[in-house]
Automatic annotation (TrEMBL):
Record text on subunit structure and interactions: Tetramer of two alpha and two beta subunits.
Reactions the enzyme catalyzes: tRNA(Phe) + L-phenylalanine + ATP = L-phenylalanyl-tRNA(Phe) + AMP + diphosphate + H(+)
GO molecular function, one term: phenylalanine-tRNA ligase activity
Co-factor binding comment: Binds 2 magnesium ions per tetramer.
Family assignment from sequence similarity: Belongs to the class-II aminoacyl-tRNA synthetase family. Phe-tRNA synthetase alpha subunit type 1 subfamily.
Pfam families: Phe_tRNA-synt_N, tRNA-synt_2d
PANTHER family in UniProt: PHENYLALANINE--TRNA LIGASE, MITOCHONDRIAL, PHENYLALANYL-TRNA SYNTHETASE
Protein name: Phenylalanine--tRNA ligase alpha subunit
Gene: pheS
Length: 343
């Protein structure tokens, strides 16, 4: 048995000399020193030895194991050192290179426009009000002079959750809630927020968009007050050269109602492809608050009057920045958004 152990030692050390990879080294370790390895197989025969021979053969076995393990450890250390050296060479850092500056973020263009609009109207004495995006049918339609059988409901294809609960189609419900909370006192408020309508996404439409509505109620509020307010807003938003025109329209919650156009920012009113050679671009809707809406809001239409207006934030942003597709605001393309870092 002693001769077999010595032969095993010689064989193992010879094979270990030719090892050239960590995987090959591990395979030889298992082959000679594993639970089913060659050394274990030989030592299992010690049971047939005499009491005098066992210590001698046991010592020889330990010597063989120690010799093989020593070579394996040396080889393993050499492989680790070589791997570390190769990694350091591949990952060398040139400390003389200039550092990378962190990219500065920017306010999203839609949020930027919302903030600018809010600043303008706060400067005109308005307060900002918010309300829930999941609304009741009453606040979204009925309190705005749109009973359940009203044909104008077809103008807004809505996301209903139940028969009485829906995603708001406009921020007008915030105006109704503000009127009821005011308990007959004068109001001067704007209501920004997200609204939802069942619409196909394209260059000018989205199922979710941002809207800002305004409401003024008090004694002797006139249509001329509305026009003056909107003209001042447009000139603060687009420049002193901007002008507006009002065209008769229909909204169930205002009477009379009007669509508001602004002089084309592209051609200054001379006519171009953007404005279809009219010199004007539609920007928002407005009108005098309907007496029925005043009554449902807790006001006496014989004592007070009011005006309201509503605009799409995306529409304002498209005109302000000369953007041709509303989808740019939602695709999170850094090439597009980075243009607004310094604006």
């Amino acid at each position: 048995m002693k001769e077999r152990l010595e032969a095993l030692r010689s064989e193992a050390l010879t094979e270990l000399e030719t090892v050239d990879s960590p995987q090959q080294l591990n395979d030889l370790r298992v082959k000679y020193l594993g639970k089913k390895g060659a050394l274990t197989e030989i030592l299992r025969g010690m049971g047939s030895l005499s009491a005098e021979e066992r210590p001698i053969i046991g010592q020889v076995g330990n010597d063989v194991r120690a010799a093989i393990e020593s070579v394996i450890e040396t080889k393993q250390a050499a492989f680790v050192a070589s791997e570390t050296e190769a990694r350091l060479a591949a990952e060398t850092i040139d400390v003389t290179l200039p550092g990378k500056k962190p990219e500065a973020g920017a306010i999203h263009p839609l949020n930027k426009v919302v903030q600018e609009i809010e600043d303008i109207f706060v400067g005109l004495g308005y307060t900002v009000a918010e309300g829930p995006e999941v609304e009741t049918d009453y606040y979204n339609f009925e309190a705005l002079n749109l009973p359940k059988d009203h044909p104008a409901r077809d103008m807004q294809d809505s996301f209903y959750i139940t028969d009485e609960i829906l995603m708001r189609t406009q921020t007008s419900p915030v105006q109704v809630r503000t009127m009821k909370a005011a308990q007959g006192k004068p109001i001067k408020v704007i209501c920004p927020g997200k609204v939802y309508r069942r619409d196909d996404d394209d260059a000018t439409h989205s199922f979710q968009f941002n809207q800002i509505e305004g409401l003024v109620i008090g004694p002797n509020i006139r249509m001329s007050d509305l026009k003056g307010t909107l003209l001042q807003f447009v000139q603060l938003m687009f420049g002193k050269q901007a002008q507006i025109r009002l065209r008769p329209s229909f909204f169930p919650f205002t009477e009379p109602s009007a669509e508001v156009d602004v002089t084309c920012s592209q051609c200054g009113g001379d006519g171009c492809r953007m404005c279809k050679h009219t010199g004007w671009l539609e920007i928002l809707g407005c009108g005098m608050v309907h007496p029925r809406v005043l009554e449902m809001g807790g006001y006496d239409p014989n004592e007070v009057s009011g005006f309201a207006f509503g605009m799409g934030v995306e529409r304002i942003a498209l005109l302000k920045y000369g953007i041709d597709d509303i989808r740019h605001f939602y695709t999170n393309d850094l090439r597009f958004l980075s243009q607004f870092v310094r604006m």
